[in-house]
Amino acid sequence: MTITTTTLTRTAGLAAVAAGALFILIQFIHPSEDVASVATTAWTVVHTVSITMAVLALVGITGTYLRQVERAGILGLVGYVLFSTCFLVIAMFTFVEAYVLPLLTEQVPRFVEDVVAVPAGGTVVGDVGALQTVSLVSFATYLLGGLLFGIALYRAGQVHRWAAVTLAVGAVCPLLLAVLPHAPGRLAAVPVGIALIGLGHSTWRGTTRRGETAARRSAPSARRRRQLTASSGR
To answer: Which of 203, 199, 126 is nearest to 168 (CA)?
Structure first.
């Protein structure tokens, strides 16, 4: 199989679609954030899905950005770096939640409870090291990165603009829902999931259209060459 830029970009678009769908799904199947839930298989499965989502999102937004890197400008670069940093941090933090915390529920349940409380905005009693700072970085890059990246994509005009607007608005939704408990507040992530699906579809469809356009343009030239060959044969 020949690897081309179009193939890679289309793959990135599909990755963004999958990431958006998983991001939405996770909000509805996430277990309760307590020590009892951490020890369950469901906790590990859901957080493994979260890691997969973060990796797919990194691939997807990278492909979307590279497709319009020349038009996105500095704003697009800053937004991309911040937004991709958010998903990188999510993948690292979630790895600890999925594969480290379940091993500590019996030895240090208080520590596990504190770590689980960090992303949920709960009260942390003990020392969790730099995890609170990491969580803050994730939150800040999610808000600023999503907002700036959405604006840059809208201005570039090479993806579905409704998806770019949804990303920018969805990224700041957590601020509007900060007064809600963490569980219902998860619904604030749904617009970003929808935006990723839209951006991914636009990226995949855009490369397909470019391929079809190139094929149509080359068709007359091919026919012309056949005509010239036939004429010379006479």
So the answer is: 199
> How far is the C-alpha of 103 from the C-alpha of 112, rounded, in Å?
10
Q: How many C-beta neighbours within 10 Å does residue 141 have?
A: 22
- Of 159, 197, 200, 201, which Cα lies nearest the Cα of 68? 159
pLDDT tens-digit map of 196-206: 999 999 998 87
Query: Interior CA angle at 70 toward 68 and 72, to 5°?
Result: 65
Angstrom distance (rounded) from CA 13 to CA 99: 29
pLDDT in tens, 108-135: 999 999 998 888 777 888 888 888 899 9
3-class SS shares of the chain: helix, strand, coil, % to 5? 85, 0, 15
**Residue 109: C-alpha distances to residues 35, 41, 137, 183, 200 (Å):** 7, 17, 25, 22, 40
Q: Would you call 188 helix, strand, or coil by DSSP?
A: helix
**CA dihedral sign of residues 161, 162, 166, 169:** positive
Domains of the chain, by residue range, sit at 5-233
Token pair 């003990």 is found at 126
